[in-house]
Amino acid sequence: MARFDQLENMYDLGLKPVMLRSLIRQYLPAENHPLNLNNSCFELPSLVSIVQTHCLLSELDSQSIDPKLINTWKSAVDDWLSCLLSLLSSDMSDKCWVGICLLGVTCQECSNQRFLSSYSIWLNKLLSHIQPPADSQLVKIASCTSLADLLTRLARFPEVKKDGNLLAGKLIQPVLKLLNEDNVEAVWEGAANLLYALIAFFPASIHHYYDKVEAAIASKILSGKYSTKTLKKLGYCLALLPKAKGDKDSWSLMMQKFMISINDHLNEAFQGVEEEAKSDEARRLLVPPGKDLPLPLGGASFKGTSSERLPTATISTLMFCCCKMLTSSYPVQVTVPVRSMLALVERLLRVDGSLPHTMLPFMTSVQQELICSELPVLHAYSLELLIAIIKGMRRQLLPHSAYIVRVVTRYFKRCSLPELRIKLYSIIRMLLVSMGVGIAIYLAPDVIENASNDLNSLGGEDIETSPANTGPATGALPQLSNRKRKHGAETGSLEEKRDAPSPKVGESNTHQMTPITVKMAALDTLEVLLTVGAASKSESWRSSIDSLLMKTAINSCKRGWGNLESNIFLPHESASVWADFQFSSLRALLTSLLAPARTRPPYLSQGLELFRRGKQEAGMKLAQFCAYALFALEVLIHPRALPLDDFYSACHNSTDGASNRFLENIYSGSRKQNTSFLSDMRRTEQGGVESHDVDLYDRWLQNENENQNENENIPVEDMKDQTSRPNDPSFTNVLEVREQEPAAANADVHMRTENEIVVQPCHLEESVPKSQGVASAKAVMSPAVGTNPEGSEIESKTPLSASDRLNDTNHDMFSCVDKVDGFDHVAGKTSSTLRNAEKGSSSMVHLDSDSSMDSFPGIVDADPDTDADSD
Amino acid sequence: MEMGEKMNKEALVVCSDKSTGIGITVWDLETGEQLLHIPTCAAAPHGLFCLRNQFIVASQSNRHGSFGGGSIFIWPLNKPQSPLRSYTLEAMGPISCTKGGLYIAGGAPSGNAYLWEVTSGRLLRTWHAHHKSLKCMVFSDDDSLLIFGCTDGIISVWSMISLVDVEDSGSSPSLLYYSSEHRSSITGLVTMSAGARSIFISSSLDGTCKVWELVSGRHLQTLVYPMSVTAIALHPIERLLFSGSVDGNIFVNVFDIGAVEDCFVTTEDQAFVLKVHNESITALTFSGFHLISASEDFTFCLWDTINRVVLRRFNNRKGAVTNMVVIKQSSLFPILNHQRVTHQFQVSLLQKYPQPSNPGKGMATFLSFPASHSKPPPTHFHGNNLLDHLISGSEQEEQTPAMLQTKLEKNIDDRLWVTSMTKHVMEISKHLQCRLLDMMQCRLLCNPYELDSSPKKKRHKIQSQNQTPTEQSQ
Asked: Acidic residues bias: where (chain A) (predicted)?
């Protein structure tokens, strides 16, 4: 401990050997000292975590490290290892177990050099513990795990591949022995772990034992007696087994064996619930005519299990195997029997427990009950298989996608178990993402229908008061609170306030109608549909979906914001379901706002408000998403008309230096303007939407009064403009927006004027006199495009529609640049006119503000909090 | 380093439709060198493409033999001496392939369309798509739709899912829609995916380019040119549309598809013009940000679109270039052993006749994402988790059977140890008792009066201590 004084801090390398030694002293039991198992169970994790966080076994070796330190460290690790090895050779099974576990950790943590020099010793030591004299099961399991770790590390060194294969070969027989002769499930699990490592990293070592491994695992799976977890692990190994040979045929053969075995089991299980012809048909697909049946799985012939219970565990494990075969990589190209796999999926999904008429007399109700109780599991696995097929085949599935669409849509109509529905939704998402817009055409109607149903069943009462398909969601909210207020009035004014903010009781009852997880799946699916296929003939459903998503988002948030932080008290769930639901609904809402449409998103202002509120109030993850949503919507509100760089530089080079300078001036001028604009805009906008301050509102009203006079002319001009150019879409847009969406209109006008300002200097330049320049700058203030006299003059030359305003601008730019050649002095004038334009712009902010004012109360209304408070 | 740069450089593949003797030439765009020449090829316009960066595929415009059939040749770029020669029922005009390189579509002058699966070579479908000759075709960005342009100005859009449906044919119509807005032959089709909104642009000899919404077929915009448009290309990132016209001019437009309803845009005045060619433009394409234009005047040019200057002018003396494809130079190099990519789909001869599909037959594929194969297998330890699992299992109430067994073993061990220790202690105490008795006897007999009281107490203590375990054990 004398050294301790010299240590700098916790990063000091000198600390490591010291720490390691004290760990050995503290935790590792001495040779003849008994181990307190209960204590060691608590101590082991902390020991392992200290070793791992401080990299105590890594033995960093570099020039900069003091060689003395290297030696100390080395000897400390030597001690550690000798201590472990002595534990390993202990007679006490618990000590042995601790030693084996720590050796596994050492395999992961130690330096490459040390690992390479001693892996074979370790392997042999560990090997001795899974061979016959060993009897403790825990020791066997731990040895298997540590061996798996050792092999995993060994696989990182390609130079010892040969040696590794040789050593791995030694392990296979003991592992097979564990599988065949041991009769404890936990040991098989350990053996499966080791087998997985062998197949994954040293497939060549398995080659000679291929059939034996297959038989050993197959017998376990076909017996179907063990826990799902163990069977799955074993099944995974079986699915990977063809890698040991690595050729095309062994993969296909294994797959064929799986399929035939599943088929045989199904034939037996489904006796009486499906037509006989189905099983023959499936068989025909599996074994091409004229070809021999392959040997059954595992070599032994399949023995029928008793009819008392269905072989569900076996069938599901075999289907799991198929899934894994499809989704894990394989070194060569293989032939996937897509058609027969899809037929299997369809066959399973078709059986719903109902009895065909012909079978009616042969079935007892007990048999039917038996099948019905097991069917959900089988359906779940067949959906899993479908997922695996989609994942494995990706784009190549195209020839079968029409078939899949038929299967999926047919099943969608009947499927009502929440879990299955969630899976089905995820399949649809995968199809949409992988096949694109082409498949969206076929899937959209069913997705819309089902998702709407699922989401609308949110609460019967909600639907009563606010039908989903009519009217915007703003309507829904006040109505809802009105109803609650009435309710409160009946019970008495004291209870009113308590009642209003806690609508949980009624809701939680109705939620049970459609579980919230299904709703989340429906929301996610709608989100994907909107991203992939928003443009696909969506007119018919778009508005109803938009309003549904808005409604769902508002509903999800009216209870307050959930927290997505993980909660250790919730089993298996990292965060509360409610917060997840909020997250899904907000994501779907953002997509619905962003998805392309022909009109402005009708619920933009509500959405913005929701996101703003979420940003401030919600938990970190939700708030982060809300911030992202605002960020993404920014482009929608203020479209960026960025200059096309190469386009402009093209004119730079085509004209001489003087005009170059002139252009630069324009740009710097306009840029300045833009920034001042933006800041103004942001101020007004935030004031507009976020604040519910009455004073502010009054001030806005005042502003409006002040500007009334100026404002009067504009509508007239607008009208003129409209008559002269009936097709001007931007203008009609403005009108529409004004009616529906005041806040957005506000932004819209800003955006447009902003564009216009960039254009402005060119016009100004053409009309050199200052006074006119000011006039035109004023004209910019009007929200409609093209009221500017100079501008219209130019535009009349080129019969452009306003849509290509940018083109227009550019062209103007060229023309004026050409004219300007040689007029150096003009630049100064422009900059002065620019200042005027800036003035104009600042006055314009006021102007715009009033366009939003008539609807302002509506925005305040839309906020549920204020609503409740105002009571 | 040099190698790496070379790998990223691009090369231009050009060919003509006039005579088979001209063949395919591959040019280095930077140096102007000729990298490769493949003899005997004359591809129809839009009849040349690069498949998966490895193969050059060209439909042969000359008729094959006296039967009037056509042919499609596939050359591996790194081994161009041995092409796959597939013979088709009719002479093929335009051909195209999906982005993933899984399907090839071909159109014949009769208006018939053909669809092959590349891996198996199977002719999946032939159908009469148009009454007039097919002029060009293109797949949508997500490969799910197929767009045809015809000499009579009709554009049709087909659903791939329905076209290649193995089960049936007919249950759902493959034709999504068609449009006859163009008054003259279609000369070019370009797809463009702006996120969820897929659009495509068509150019026509009637002097217009039209912008369409891909799925709904809604006409968004028309760009009007003073001349017939013979070729179009989109700048890879910016919204610039390049349209080559019949008089050799190339018009450049800023292309804006904002929420604009049906409108006409005359481009005459606002577009700027790239002018170098004297005769009709035959093809336009991009290499990086450089435009390449080919013309009937036997030349093709590499443009700096920013400065609007020609960087390099190539002269294809033997004939006008009608097809151009940009490829990576790296695909020309023979594959070295250590970089051999095993995961390559095979390319089969395209079949001449459709064959009944065998439902039992599977579909050849690679089961993994190609990217994950260049890397060594990902190694991660699962031991730790298992270790934790074992340990936590021992902490919890629900214990694994193995853990229980170990505990039992441990208990037995402990019991044994305790018994042996007890025996040991008993022996010792017996021994001590004997000694004590001896001593007492001895002292009582020898020297009873010399004893102090304190040692006596001690002895008593010892006695009592010794007796306790004995009594217990008894």
From this structure: 862-871
Q: In this complex, do B254 and A647 lie within 8 Å of one another by their Cβ atoms? A: yes
Residue B59, CA distances (Å) to A752, A807, B331, B459 in order: 50, 39, 21, 116
Q: Find the helix or strand (DSSP H, E) in which B36 lies.
A: strand B34-38
Place of tokens 């490895």: B54
Asked if B270 and A804 come within 8 Å (Cβ–Cβ), the reply is yes
E runs forming strands in B141-196:
145-150, 155-159, 175-179, 186-194
Shortest Cα–Cα distance, B77 to chain A (Å): 22
| Cβ neighbours of A339 in B, within 8 Å | 166, 359-362
Burial grade of A379 (CB within 10 A; 0-12, 13-18, 19 or more): buried
Of A33, A235, A41, the residue nearest A138 (C-alpha): A41
pLDDT single digits (tens) B303-352: 888 778 888 888 877 788 888 999 888 877 776 544 445 556 678 888 88
Tell me which of B142, B143, B225, B421 to substitute to probe the interface with A (most A C-beta atoms closer than 10 Å). B142
CB-based contact B142 A285, cutoff 8 Å: no
Sheet holding B112-117, edge to edge: B95-97, B103-107, B112-117, B123-128
Strand-pairing partners, residue B58, are: B48, B73
Which DSSP helix (H) or strand (E) runs through B63? strand B55-64
- Our CA-based measurement puts residue A205 at a distance from the nearest CA of chain B, in whole angstroms, of 17
E strand or H helix at B28: strand B24-28
Residues of chain A in contact with residue B370, where contact means CB-CB under 8 angstroms, are: none
A366 Cβ contact list (under 8 Å, min separation 6): none
Phi-psi region of A353 (alpha: psi -120 to 50; beta: other; left: phi over 0): left
Q: Is B26 exposed, middle or buried (0-12, 13-18, 19+ CB in 10 A)?
A: buried
Share of chain B above pLDDT 90, in %: 15
Contact B215 A34 (CB under 8 A): no
Interface test with B, best of A807, A816, A818 (most B CBs within 10 A): A807
Contact: B365, A141; criterion CB under 8 Å:
no
Q: Which residue of A has its CA nearest to B360?
A: A285
In the block, residue with structure tokens 């370009």: B190
At B459 the pLDDT is 52
Is there a contact between B284 and B293 (Cβ–Cβ < 8 Å)? yes
Give the DSSP letter of residue B32.
-
Angstroms from A737 CA to nearest CA on chain B: 14
Binary contact (A138, B405; C-beta < 8 A): yes
For range B174-192, the mean pLDDT: 89
Residue A35 phi/psi, 5-degree rounding, is -100, 130
Contact criterion met (CB < 8 Å) for A396 and B365? yes
Residue of A103, A105, A143 lying closest to A127 (CA atoms): A143
Sheet of B309-315, strands arranged across: B281-287, B290-295, B299-304, B309-315
What is the C-alpha to C-alpha distance for residues A452 and A758, in angstroms, rounded to an integer?
45
pLDDT tens figures, A349-359: 988 888 777 76
Whether residue A729 contacts residue A803, with contact meaning beta carbons closer than 8 Å, is answered with yes
Of B254, B258, B410, the CB nearest to A810: B254
- The distance of Cα B372 from the centroid of its chain, to the nearest Å, equals 12
pLDDT in tens, B408-422: 766 777 778 788 888
Q: How far, in Å, CA of A45 to CA of A323, rounded? A: 35
In terms of residues, how long is chain B?
A: 474
Shortest CA gap A366–chain B (Å): 34
pLDDT of A470 above 50? no
Looking at residue A425, its pLDDT comes to 95
